[in-house]
Amino acid sequence: MPDGNSRALIPSVTTLADYQKQRGFQAYQRASGQGDGGAATVLEAVRQARLRGRGGAGMLTATKWQIVRDAVTKRGGPAFLVCNAYDADPKSLVATTLLTNQPYLVLEGMLLAAQAVGAREAYLYLHSTNKTGYAAINAALNATRDAGLLGGLTVNVVGVDLGFMGGEESTMLEAIKGRRAMAQQRPPFPAQVGLGEMPTAVSNLETLVQVVNIARDPAAFAKTGTQISPGTKYVSVYDAAGNGTLLEVPFGTTIAAILKQAGITVTAQTTRGVVVGGPEGGVLPLTQLTTAFDYDPLAQAGAIVGSGTIEVLGPQTCMVDWARERTQYLTEQSCGKCIPCRTGTKRIAGTLAGIMSDVGIAGDLDLLNEFADYVPDGSMCGFGWNATHPLKTALRYYPDDFQKHLQGECPTGTCVPVRSHRFAKKGVL
Asked: If you average pLDDT over every residue of the chain, what do you get?
């Protein structure tokens, strides 16, 4: 979880009385007062707002919820709701901060979502090391229940520590079911067949917070962001020393503007690159910092929205070593179910280690490019689809780092060899 050098800019509202003074639960009570029509009202508001899920994939929330409702109509209920508050990225400040500072806001979002999909039971799924968030959400849950504001919704709080893969949608549902936490083949998607083999809506807690904002003031929500991605996004921004801050920025804000808002100055003398998207994000050079923080522009640049984490890399960063270190981490976090992901990331990390240790050959670059497509093409979940972004962007934007290492020289003079021989068995993954 984030270290003690992080700071967050979200006001703390941790009592029910204070939350109600700020229009707390009014949106939910207003929708509840409409009876069966309340669900349609909430769903239509989310559809009109064009809210995209904030968990990283960016799917339209109303589309996912409509699939749940249609599945209930076709197959019968009950439906379930899962709020993903796991924060798989160790550097993400979002879930910890929202749960700790705004637990009632999260709960109201869950209530509105449950009403929209017809769920009577919900799960709030979080990282077990998030002690402050766990305490805050449980206190808020008890106070809300005692005040009779849950409207019959049963909310279960589940804490697990499953590494990076613990935040993947199907892995999460397997963990809640008490099964081995591994990614599952889709279709069927959880919206059709999830918990108890019933339709299940899985939404990120930041998405649910935005649902409350939409229900309160849809016009204000529509005025921010872009036409394709309306609204705002929480981003965790780190300087080169590892100091982090949490910001809320409109979609479409440039990376440069986000860094400036965080009080971080980047120049060619202080910064080698900026990583956007968390552990599976891509590294961008300073020439790409005019890229808008939005799904499509970032994808074109080679990065992702992902966890919303933005990290500045210092001037002495060798991109071969950075890509190796990042891929080695992902190798250790893979659930291991898909062979291309399990073995492909390992082969990438090993090849990069050889290049970094100056025992690489030119043919290694062809191998890396091959694996850059092999891993995502053969993986069944988002972990494998995104796992090669660090490699791809390092190769794309910093080719000289690789060439210099192949000539026996670290471009920044910082690499320490980690192996003295090549991993040379042909065809072995």
From this structure: 93
CATH at residue 279: 3.10.20.600
Question: Same structural domain for residues 262 and 178?
Answer: no
Find the CATH number of the domain harbouring 369: 1.20.1440.230
In a domain, 132, yes or no: yes
Whether the CB-CB separation of 390 and 396 falls below 8 Å is answered with no
User: How many of the other CB atoms lie within 10 Å of CB of 49?
Assistant: 23
Rg of the Cα atoms in the chain: 22
Question: So what's the pLDDT on residue 425?
Answer: 55
Contact 284, 303 (CB under 8 A): yes
- Nearest by Cα to 84 from 20, 132, 130: 130
Q: How far apart are CA 347 and CA 350, in angstroms?
A: 5
CA–CA dist 230, 49 (Å, integer)? 7
User: Could you tell me if 77 and 213 lie in one domain?
Assistant: yes
Given 283, 313, 343, the domain boundary residue is: 313
Domain enclosing residue 24, as ranges: 7-222
CA distance 312 to 240: 5
Is the dihedral angle over the CA atoms 141, 143, 149, 151 positive or is it negative?
positive
Backbone angles phi, psi at 164, to 5 degrees: -65, -35
Using CB atoms within 10 Å of the CB of residue 413, give its burial: 0 to 12 exposed, 13 to 18 middle, 19+ buried.
Answer: exposed
Whether residues 277 and 385 share a domain: the answer is no
Q: What does the block give as tokens for 376?
A: 């995502």
Convert the pLDDT of each residue in 246-278 to its tens digit.
Answer: 999 999 999 999 999 999 999 999 999 999 999
- Let me know if residue 413 belongs to a domain: no
My answer on whether 270 and 399 are in the same domain is no
pLDDT in tens, 386-416: 999 999 999 999 999 999 999 999 999 999 9
* Tally of domains within the chain: 3
Q: What is the mean pLDDT of residues 65-86?
A: 94
Contact 102, 139 (CB under 8 A): no
CA distances from 38 to 112, 173, 312 (A): 9, 28, 45
Q: How far is CA 414 from the centre of its chain?
A: 31
> Which residues partner with 234 through β-bridges?
248
Give, as one character, the DSSP assignment of residue 125: E
Helix (H, G, I), strand (E, B) or coil at 204: strand
Residue in 208, 194, 225 with CA at minimum distance from that of residue 71: 194
